[in-house]
Amino acid sequence: MTNYIKGLTFTLFLVLLSILPVHNASAHLKPTEYERTWGQNFANDVRNDFLNYFDNNRLLFFGDGLIAAGILANTGFDRAFGDHWQRDFRSEALDRFFRAPQWIGCLSFYYAPIFLGTMGIGHLREHTVMGNVMYHWGYRSLRAFILGGLQQVSLTHMLGSGRPCLNQDSKWQPFKYSNAVSGHAFYGAIPLLTAAMMTDPPIPKTMLYIASTLPGLSRINYNKHYLSQFILGWGIAFLSAQTVYETDSKRNPAFQTSLHPRSDGLMLSTKLNF
User: Fold this and answer.
1) What is the pLDDT of residues 148-188, one digit of tens each?
2) Would 249 be classed as within a structural domain?
3) Which helix (H) or strand (E) holds 209?
4) Which are the contacts of 199, defined by CB distance < 8 A and separation ≥ 6?
5) What percent of the chain is modeled with pLDDT above 90?
6) Rounded to whole angstroms, how far apart are CA atoms 180 and 186?
7) Which one, of 171, 185, 165, 113, lies nearest residue 142 by Cα?
8) Is 35 within a domain?
9) 34 lies in some domain
10) 3-state helix, strand and coil shares in percent for the chain, rounded to the nearest 5
């Protein structure tokens, strides 16, 4: 349980890092541009997420990723890459570095109540910037969790790839093993990718994108997953978080006017979507 608490603490630290340097209030109030819909339109939002997920561009991206992972898994490149990492890269220092990212991935299904709890806290503090950010981070993360989780669970069994630490082949052998899509790579990336897509400043945004890959890379480092399994897990998380973000973006009205609090008073801003 201590590891789970550490993982949650580290995750929330990275998320909060993306919104702490608030110098331009209007840039960081972006989540308030989306009307809260929990309890009224949740099912409709999830439905739209699935519809938007299967557009041509996303299907092409998913297909390319699946082909790339398939080549790695079925040609021996997975094994060669893993052996090279273990022999030439892995060290005690790297093991220590990857402990916290692995804890983030270990939370897996704990994330559902975490997202719901964050939404509840955000709802109680909805009149504040932090409250709005917390609510929308939890709401979007929960939907991405549902959207991508169904794929992660089904594909990891259907493709039938094994674990390197058990000397199991990465070759796709339907339903033989259940490790073809890294759960750590998927579940650990969802909260960080969602935070990255809600962040405007380029430096924290880039940091969050990079951090989203670490839970999956930790499993390669500890010899628990192959490279192809990491690619599939992170790729599904990225497409799911991106789809949820675009679903909410499409719900924006064409013309918006909003009043933002600032340290030196109030600021009236307008936005026109093309």
Assistant:
1) 999 998 999 999 898 998 888 889 999 998 888 999 999 99
2) yes
3) helix 202-221
4) 18, 19, 205, 208
5) 38
6) 12
7) 113
8) no
9) no
10) 70, 5, 25
Structure token digits, residue 108:
């897996």
- In single-letter form, the type of residue at position 271 comes to K
Q: 135-144, pLDDT tens digit by residue?
A: 889 999 999 9
For residue 119 the two structure tokens come to 């939404």
Which residue has tokens 């916290």?
100
Strand partners, 255: 272
Distance in angstroms (rounded) separating the CA atoms of residues 6 and 10? 6
247 domain residue, yes or no = yes
Split into its structural domains, the chain has a count of 1
Which residue type is seen at 105?
G
Q: What tens digit of pLDDT does each residue of 13-56 get?
A: 555 544 444 333 333 444 444 444 456 678 888 888 998 888 87
For residue 79, the enclosing domain spans: 2-18+42-272
